[in-house]
Amino acid sequence: MPIPWPKRIRDTGQLTVFNDAGVWADSVDAAMKTFNSLPFSVQLVAEEKETSANIVVLLANGPQTYTHEGTTAQTGAKFKFDELHGQTSLFQSSRRNEMLFAVTFLPGKVPNPTHGQKEVIIVHEFIHASGGMGNDEHDSIGIFVGYMQTADGGMIEYLHDEGAQPMPPIRVGPRTLTKMQTVWPGVQRPMHHSARGTIRVA
Ligand SMILES: [Zn+2]
């Protein structure tokens, strides 16, 4: 099950991101904008102070560790520094089923990745981080599938439907949308009253 961020954070509708992604930093900024345009009830905002960030994004050129408040994450044995993928480590509170922090490692040795490829990889990792979702939550379609391949300067599901187009533009699978809605249900919009009755604004 996805791990929600604490209520005090959910109530803001925002997660803060410290971008320390080196030569991928511009793509991280762009991917934040793309993520914010997706139909999720959470927005990513830049955080200048590393220790205050909910999510830290790093470029890994080799095996790397990251320590947050005494807990250390590291790039896994399967993490290849020259392949188009990422790794997000979720820091979870031991007493409550809640997210505390997330760190995303991006591959620093991919030869000549396109902006579109980097954007796809980063948005995918932002869904892991913001949704508190591990690899067992991957979708069968869209940006949050477990396996993708390069196509026409972008990325496409490794197993894709006939006629599916490479991303970007980012496609979000319905299962991913549903899971994001469970952890970020969003602000209840007010009821609007009209002369005829009550209309819910969607
Ligand atoms: Zn993934």
Description:
It is a single chain. The protein is an alpha/beta fold and 202 residues long. Helices cover 21% and strands 28% of the residues. The chain is built from 4 helices and 11 strands; from the N terminus they run αβαββββββαββαββ. A hairpin with a 2-residue loop joins strand 4 and strand 5 (71-74). The radius of gyration is 18 Å and the shape is globular. The two termini are 27 Å apart. The mean pLDDT is 93. Bound molecules: zinc ion. Zinc ion is lined by residues 124, 128, 135, 138, 146.
Beta-strand portion reads 25-35%
Q: How many domains, in number, for the residues? A: 1
Q: Compute the CA-based radius of gyration.
A: 18 Å
- CATH topology, what is it called? Collagenase (Catalytic Domain)
Q: State the helix count.
A: 4
Write the layout of secondary structure elements.
Elements: H1 7-10, E1 14-20, H2 25-36, E2 43-46, E3 55-60, E4 65-68, E5 71-74, E6 87-92, E7 99-107, H3 115-131, E8 148-151, E9 154-157, H4 174-183, E10 191-194, E11 197-200
Parallel strand pairs: 1-2, 1-3, 3-7
Antiparallel strand pairs: 4-5, 6-7, 8-9, 10-11
Helix pairs in contact: 2-3
Bound molecules: zinc ion.
Give a short summary of the structure:
It is built from four helices and eleven strands; from the N terminus they run H-E-H-E-E-E-E-E-E-H-E-E-H-E-E.
